[in-house]
User: Which sequence fits this backbone?
């Protein structure tokens, strides 16, 4: 049985002080593939101490030194890409295509941050003063199970570029991927203590991190419920906070959109990453007048998605990450039917021939109104709610009628019209006629989708404090 490393402190992988052991179950076939021994309070305190000591020197490192470290981490991750892709498929269930894309992105993010440093000055003259940007200090990075390598890369690259030291708390439900990334970082030659990792129960590790006065910054990606708890706890020690939380993104197909393009794109947006994406466009807003044609296209295009073992090259949608996720999605499908939505495609249970593993049927509901739970709550699975509108103003109002505001999408044959609609949507990112990702543009949400921004210059600034020097 593979034993996954859970503790990296002061430049060394160590046997954890914690003794609790968890089996890692592959969602592909529900078999145990590895074991993780949880880090505990003692491990976490030692990691904080190591990061605090390392900060004394690292906060004074030069831009050139930090750029060298970032480039080295990139190179080491590239060496381990095949391992990461395998782990992402077997441990998490992502399709091969998704695994390749997400892990290549995790490597390139470090080079993106080098380009940010190339064009950024940590000192600027403002009127009669010199404004100095300084590292915020020891930073606790909490990363999720649905985007392990990418989330670690986005947070860590910005923290290191700023001159911060780090205690990484990855999700205990994706430890194999996290361990490979940590091994890559360890091989990159950073000073001891600059990056530390403790992987254990969230409630155990986070308590120590949140109570420590030495930790001055947290960056968390995960559920809105947990994010709010951490934000409240951060006040006691006045930690700086970045939260990237949940979403229930609207995808508006405007009246003039070419449906033969918009509907396939809508399903890609809804079902990406097996539906386990905070940015997924899980509310599809369509013109009432075109509903008959849209229904036919949705069924025809959904039939093209192949569900199955992600190790198979042609599979588009793999299993959900865990038994808990499987049952959560089943409950929401049941809720949708009980609420009176029309089940257009998919439904309860496993797809045919896939009884072993956490596979679900990609599901589409029509006849949904925006007050239904399936339209308001984040399901985190391949479940699409189709909502009709009668005019553009109504579509925008429905899209904005959500406690979330992470992402939104617009399909139209008129790019200028798409831009105008995008400006009226309460979301941190709006994509018009595309599913592209811009790794240098800020990412984050309005409302209950969090605050602060990641990526590029904005991500760097979230790890900096402002000092004004007047002479």
Assistant:
């Amino acid at each position: 049985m593979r034993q996954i490393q859970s503790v990296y402190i002061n430049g060394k992988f160590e046997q954890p002080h914690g003794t609790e052991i968890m089996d890692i179950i592959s969602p592909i076939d529900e078999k145990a593939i590895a074991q993780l021994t949880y880090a505990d309070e003692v491990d976490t305190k030692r990691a904080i101490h190591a990061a605090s000591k390392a900060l004394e020197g690292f906060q004074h490192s030069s831009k050139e030194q930090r750029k060298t470290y970032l480039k080295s981490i990139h190179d080491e991750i590239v060496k381990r890409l095949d391992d990461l892709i395998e782990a992402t498929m077997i441990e998490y269930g992502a399709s091969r295509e998704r695994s390749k894309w997400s892990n290549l992105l995790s490597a390139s993010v470090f080079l993106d941050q080098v380009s940010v440093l190339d064009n950024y000055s940590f000192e600027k003259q403002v009127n009669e003063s010199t404004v100095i940007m300084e590292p915020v200090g020891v930073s606790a990075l909490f990363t999720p199970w649905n985007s392990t390598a990418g989330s670690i890369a986005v947070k860590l690259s910005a923290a290191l570029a700023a001159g911060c030291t780090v205690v990484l708390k990855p999700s205990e439900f994706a430890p194999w991927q996290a361990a490979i990334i940590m091994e890559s970082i360890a091989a990159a030659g950073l000073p001891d203590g600059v990056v530390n990792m403790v992987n254990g129960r969230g409630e155990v590790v986070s308590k120590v991190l949140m109570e420590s006065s030495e930790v001055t910054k947290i960056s968390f990606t995960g559920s809105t419920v947990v994010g709010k708890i951490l934000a409240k706890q951060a006040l006691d020690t006045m930690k700086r906070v970045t939260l990237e939380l949940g979403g229930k993104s609207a995808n508006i197909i405007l009246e003039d959109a070419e449906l033969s393009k918009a509907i396939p794109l809508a399903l890609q947006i809804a079902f990406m990453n097996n539906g386990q994406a905070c940015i997924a466009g899980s509310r599809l807003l369509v013109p009432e007048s075109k509903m008959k044609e849209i229904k036919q296209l949705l069924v025809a295009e959904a039939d093209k998605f192949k569900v199955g073992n992600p190790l198979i090259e042609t599979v588009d949608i793999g299993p959900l990450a865990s038994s808990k996720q499987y049952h959560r999605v089943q409950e929401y499908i049941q809720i949708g039917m009980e609420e009176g939505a029309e089940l257009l495609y998919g439904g309860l249970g496993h797809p045919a021939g896939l009884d072993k593993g956490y596979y679900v049927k990609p599901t589409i509901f029509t006849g949904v109104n925006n007050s239904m739970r399936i339209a308001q709550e984040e399901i985190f699975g391949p479940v699409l709610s189709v909502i009709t509108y009668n005019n553009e103003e109504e579509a925008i109002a429905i899209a904005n009628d959500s406690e979330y505001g992470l992402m939104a999408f617009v399909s139209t044959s008129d790019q200028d019209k798409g831009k105008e609609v995008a400006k009226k949507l309460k979301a941190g990112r709006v994509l018009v006629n595309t599913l592209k990702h811009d790794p240098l543009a800020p990412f984050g949400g309005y409302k209950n989708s969090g605050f602060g921004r990641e990526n590029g210059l904005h991500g760097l600034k979230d790890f900096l404090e402002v000092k004004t020097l007047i002479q």
In short: Residues 166 and 195 are 5 Å apart (CA to CA). The two ends are 63 Å apart (CA to CA). The longest strand covers residues 129-135. The mean pLDDT is 98.
